[in-house]
Amino acid sequence: MNAIISGQAGVALLIEGDELHSFQVDQPDKVIRRTHREIPFLLGEAKDLQFLNDVDIEEARRRLEKATNEVDALHLALILLDGSLSNDTRETAARELDKLLADEEIGHFVEKVLFAQSLPPAANLQAARASCSEAAGLPLELLEKLEALQGAITEVRRAWDKLPGR
Questions:
Q1: Cβ-contact 73, 101 below 8 angstroms
Q2: What is the C-alpha to C-alpha distance for residues 114 and 33, in angstroms, rounded to an integer?
Q3: What's the distance, Cα to Cα, between the start and end of the chain in Å?
Q4: 60 vs 13: CA distance, rounded Å
Q5: Based on C-alpha coordinates, what's the Rg of the chain?
Q6: Angstrom distance (rounded) from CA 104 to CA 106
């Protein structure tokens, strides 16, 4: 069986021969038969599609849960960096992010995205750090690493931007 996974949509589309089925991350045991016409509605505008070949349903479930956790961790990191949000909101995000970052692979995913470009002016590292209590040590480590690498990230981005277009 093949599968298309989207953490953004929280959906796995299962393809076996001419048959299509799907399940959602919050109901992984509820597999529903689908038609080709339903695919755009299931995946929406998700840009994080993963195409899996020769997987069983358990592997598809595992991969969907991981992809959804990665997206959730990224959103929590962005909430933590958003200076316009309340301290309570950022503290809650830090605690939840700490749980997700315990999985090293999720941490690598968040780093790959956050380290791709310098932080925008609206990002508030100081408020984000202040929102990390002792119970949120992993997000604090992430923020310190992100801050330390801002110069290098900016330099690398400038170098990429200097490459001639197609």
A1: yes
A2: 37
A3: 38
A4: 9
A5: 19
A6: 5
The domain ranges of the chain are: 2-61, 67-162
Reading the block at residue 64, the tokens are 């969907």
Give me the sign of the Cα torsion angle 22, 65, 110, 128. Answer: positive
Q: Which two tokens stand for residue 105?
A: 């692979």
The 11-16 sheet, strands edge to edge: 27-34, 19-24, 11-16, 2-6, 50-52
- What is the distance between the alpha carbons of residues 33 and 30, in angstroms, rounded to a whole number? 10
Q: Give the pTM.
A: 0.89
Question: Cβ–Cβ contacts within 10 Å for residue 142, how many?
Answer: 24
Token representation of residue 93: 């995000």
- pLDDT tens digit at each of 166 positions of the chain: 999 999 999 999 999 999 999 999 999 999 999 999 999 999 999 999 999 999 999 999 999 999 999 999 999 999 999 989 999 999 999 999 999 999 999 999 999 999 999 999 889 999 999 888 776 789 999 999 999 999 999 999 999 889 887 6
What's the confidence (pLDDT) of residue 132?
87
Residue 71: how many CB atoms within 10 A of its CB? 22
Backbone angles phi, psi at 53, to 5 degrees: -110, 145
